[in-house]
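During the first year of the project, the team set up a workflow for recording each protein of interest as an amino acid sequence followed immediately by a discrete structure-token representation. This format lets reviewers and collaborators read both layers of information side by side without switching files. As required by the reporting guidelines, we include two representative entries from the current panel. The first entry is reproduced here exactly as it appears in our internal archive.
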Amino acid sequence: MLRHSIQTGRFDFEAGGFIDDLTVVYHTSPREYKPSDKVVWICHALTANSDPEDWWPQLTGPGKLFDTEKYFIVCVNMIGSPYGTTGPASWNPDTGKPYLMSFPQMTIRDMVRGMILVRKHLGIEAVDFLIGSSIGGFHAIEWAVMEPEVIRNAVFMATAARVPAYLTAYNESQRMALEADSTFREQKSRKGGELGLRCARSIALISYRSFAGYKNTQSEPDEDALFAGRACSYQQYQGKKLSDRFDAYSYWYLSRSLDSHNLGRGRGGVAAALKTIKAKTTVVAIDSDCIFPPSELKIMADNIPGASWFMVTSDFGHDGFLLENEQLTKILTPILP
């Protein structure tokens, strides 16, 4: 997929504050958009980027489910991410330093507005197939309500119409880990909070997986081991892996944006907002997902007019949306345009 960017000019944030000239990075199929193209729009997860061939390689690319030759595929890097779109790690032209904690607070609706700016820039009048999981699902649901006439088909997977309190508790625990790192509080550089970020990622990973997943992959191979250590090594490895490619300030802001998600805010409640969705909708739950259990997705399926409902079976919890490719292909193939 090809990387692009646009400058939006002044961007005002829902919670207050503005950026004079916001940059939004996005990826598309490697050609120019034509009105005859079928548009598939993918909303990425929390620490992913706007190139789904990078993080969803089994499903995205030539000849795959999300065929970059058959469809015009678009994925936008969300506001606040460190992968090109303006965020806390970006340079503030007024100070000559990174924004860090002076960046405006972001909401899910802000992020969707950034995606809509890209849609309009490309001249896309209708999105034939919109899919999002996790925070990407937050974006997709919000967009289906903000522009009901634009979204024709939508898939909401491993997500919710309002941030669950259980997830907010995990988010706050991760922010506490970041804030406990003195280098994060000092705000001297974009590398501040590196150790806190590793800890935050370790906390998050537990919520993304399941008891069975850890038992099957991280149990001790030596039955006589004095101390269990395999899972410890795994947590340390995953924490460093993220800190090598991400920054703590972007992570803090993105986790905070999750807590803004409430589809029903100012719309008469969640159920009323869901009923305004006009897209032909498919809701996909993962049976072992502890942060978005099937009951949360059933609320969406029960309130979105004509929605279809599917359950993915997985030992990998929330991360099943990235790993259960065979099941997802079976569900999604019949509904792709």
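The second entry, processed by the same pipeline in the following quarter, appears below.
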Amino acid sequence: MSIVMISSAAHDVGKELALSLEKKTGWPSLSRTELVEEAREHGIKLGRLETSIIKSPVVPERLAKEKNLYLAFITAILCEKGKGGNLIYQGRAGHLLLPGVTHRLRVGLMTPGEMRVENAMRDLRLPREKAQVYLDQLDEDFNKWVRYVHGVERLDPAQYDLFVNLHNVSLPNISATLCSMAELPDFQPTPVSLRLMDNLDLTARAKVLLATHELTRDLDLGIRAVDGVVTVTYMPRQEGAAEAILEVLQGLKGCKEARCTMAETNILWVQESFSADSENFQEIVQLSRRWGAAVELLRVAPPAQRVQGLPEESHGIERIPVQGTAGGTYTGGVEDDSFESEGEDNGLSHTMEALVSMGRSAGGETIYGAKDEIIDKIRGESNCSLVVLGDLFLEKGREARKRMIRELSLAIRERLKAPIITADEMSSRFLFGKKQAIKLLGFAALVICVYILVFSFQKPILNFLGGEIHEQWKWLASITVALFVPFVAYCYSAVTGLLLKLIGID
């Protein structure tokens, strides 16, 4: 069972390739045009969103909800169609849908310009010059759309598994190649990939349901589903949101449990292992309380664990125990059979339980891979105000770890507006501890000494700045003032900044 995602520009042969592949394999196919029509039938105002992205240099914040609803809607449909077996999807950026799912073959097409111009001339009955101008503008609009909706460049080769130039290859040969590639073990579904697809499906359906229901459509929500547990964060100003959310989610198929957390925003914590007893955990909880934020956990596991080290009967699915609404531990009706112990999930379940008990949980899950998988997973996390990179790449040496974390931080920063910091930097930048206390005392003593000296020796200082000494050493007075004023300002700002941090004002 594979999903072939064909991404192509307007008026090229993407549709013809999808039809050729459908005839050769007998697999069902789906196009973006069909999804767009279905989205419009469900009241999603896609035209307004597209117009705003294409015509306006700044997209209004209110349209972000339209974007998220559209992505959730098409994700739910693709997951529903893909669960039944093989699937062929063709669209402008299909390769960026279903992030993290490994049994999808992402195909990009490069159609010769002359062929596209002729297709546009035939389809739209345009002269050659107008057809060329039309295609150039359309490509620019497509690029804007992909950049805003998915946060990457449309023709970024790193986002494709196969990119084909049609200049010297025929459609039948490409179709045969895709048939062979789709049968490779690399693109066959694994238990972990199927589990991820289930999570994407439930998350998307929860987003659509909450965004369209009259009780919850006006709320600002963060939604994530893992193994049937739907975690929703809502803003403190939205009184009564928890009751409405739980009521709406009661009828959601596949939702075993719904949890609500009141939070201004989310902090995403990325590590290979977690511990509720660690210093990093205490610091993140302290920061989340100051910000009124929920903490979302993202555990990174080696790629080899996708299919290795997992019990056969578990189908590779990690079961994370969660706190039920009645105060007990949710077991899904299975009392004694556990797929993964706390040690095997590197403390993820235990840390999640600790956050749930504090009312600070925004969910958590495991991904398998390294930099690319991490970026794919957190891409589009628009409700995160901070991403904390903790203990990662533990199998590497110290210097290699620092370099890889720095590279990951830079790569994430390109995709997200939220700041990225390491766990080591968190205490110095946002929290007040022993080091900050010593620094505060030192700078405060220095500032006090400076002011005492200045007020104690006013006459010599005034003489140096404007008296007889100044007449003899004008250049020295200018240099002294130029150095002294920034020095005092730096020391004073350090004291005030640390005092504000001490009382909880960032």
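For the second entry, the following points were noted during internal review. The chain has three domains: 3-187, 191-430, 434-502. The first strand starts at residue 3 and ends at 7. Both points are flagged for discussion at the upcoming steering committee meeting.
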